[in-house]
Structure formats: C-alpha cells, structure tokens
C-alpha cells in the first residue's frame, strides 16, 4: 500500500511541476506583451493586474490544451481593466465618448481622434483581436472559405462583447452610467 501511495505522490509532484512550467511560460509571454506596451510610463494611473487577470482565467480554462485561450483572455481582461481605469480614474466625458465611438467603429484610423494616453490601449485592443484571428486561422489549418468564416465569426462575436462592455459603462448615447 505504501508503495502505491509513493508512486501516486511522485506522479502528483510531476504533474504539479509540469503545470507550473506551463503557467510560467504563459505568464512570461503575457509579461513580455505587457512590457512591450510600456504601460508603466505611458499609462501610470493604470493598475498592474496582470497576474490577477491570468489567475482569473486559469480558473475558467485550466486544461493544458487551452493555453492560447488563457493567453488571449488574459490580454482581453487586462485591456478591459485598463479601459475601466480610463472610466473610473482618468478620462473626461468627452475623451470617453471618443473612445467609445472609436471602439464601436473598430478601425485603426480612429486612433487619430483619441488622446495620446488612449492610443496605446486602443491600438492593443485591435492588435490582440487581430493576432487571435490569425492564430485561429493557423490552428484551423490551411485557409478555406469555411474556416476563415468560422474564425472570423468567433472573433467578431468577441469584438462585439468588448464593444458591449464599454457601452454598458458609458451607454451607446454617451450618457455615462445610464445603463
């Protein structure tokens, strides 16, 4: 009986170390992205919630096969947190309306209408979703009309969710907190 328990304990330790290494790699990937955005100097009022957002997502997508989903959703959560800080701490009503309008149009040319501090976040929102769309196309195999439409549909749905989260905060008519 003790030998069985010892084997089980070794297996559990090996599994723990394996999962820990996956989490380290994913957090390293997300940390590089965060540092590349240069948030600490370009958006000093923003809370650094990288690890917190990651572990929220680990609670949802805990299986190893969902690594891409964890990375993507963590980035989305971090960007949502940054947008929340715009609304709660830093943005004026006019700036927030510009941001909400730009996000609803989902076009990089809208970046020119935004204040400097919002450009970093807006650009990254678009980049993260574009990156995920490309990864989904790659994961689905060679581009065909079926999988291109499928990946675009999934990403489009996620984009609409992001726009909706801003609308819930700001309201589609620009009345802050009305919804």
UniProtKB/TrEMBL annotation:
Q: Pfam families attached here? A: Terpene_synth_C (PF03936)
The answer, when asked if Ion transport is one of the entry's keywords, is no
Q: Which residues form the Terpene synthase metal-binding domain?
A: 35-139
List the Gene Ontology MF annotations in alphabetical order.
magnesium ion binding; terpene synthase activity
Q: What GO terms in the biological process aspect are recorded for it?
A: terpenoid biosynthetic process
The alphabetized UniProt keywords are: Lyase, Magnesium, Metal-binding
- List the PANTHER family hit by this protein, alphabetically: ALPHA-HUMULENE_(-)-(E)-BETA-CARYOPHYLLENE SYNTHASE, OS04G0344100 PROTEIN-RELATED
Protein name listed in UniProt: Terpene synthase metal-binding domain-containing protein
This protein's species is Stephania japonica
Provide the taxonomic classification: Eukaryota, Viridiplantae, Streptophyta, Embryophyta, Tracheophyta
């Amino acid at each position: 009986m003790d030998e069985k328990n010892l084997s089980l304990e070794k297996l559990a330790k090996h599994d723990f170390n394996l999962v820990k290494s996956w989490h380290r790699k994913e957090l390293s990937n997300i940390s590089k992205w965060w540092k590349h955005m240069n948030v600490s100097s370009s958006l000093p009022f923003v809370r650094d919630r990288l690890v917190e957002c990651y572990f929220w997502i680990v609670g949802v997508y805990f299986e190893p096969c969902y690594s891409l989903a964890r990375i993507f959703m963590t980035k989305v959560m971090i960007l949502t947190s940054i947008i929340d800080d715009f609304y709660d701490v830093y943005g004026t009503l006019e700036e927030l309306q510009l941001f909400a309008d730009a996000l609803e149009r989902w076009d990089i040319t809208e970046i020119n209408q935004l204040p400097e501090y919002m450009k970093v976040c807006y650009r990254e929102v678009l980049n993260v979703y574009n990156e995920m769309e490309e990864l989904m196309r790659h994961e689905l195999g060679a581009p065909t009309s079926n999988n291109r439409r499928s990946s675009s549909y999934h990403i489009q749905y996620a984009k609409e969710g992001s726009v909706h989260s801003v609308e819930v905060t700001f309201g589609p008519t620009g009345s802050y907190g009305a919804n």
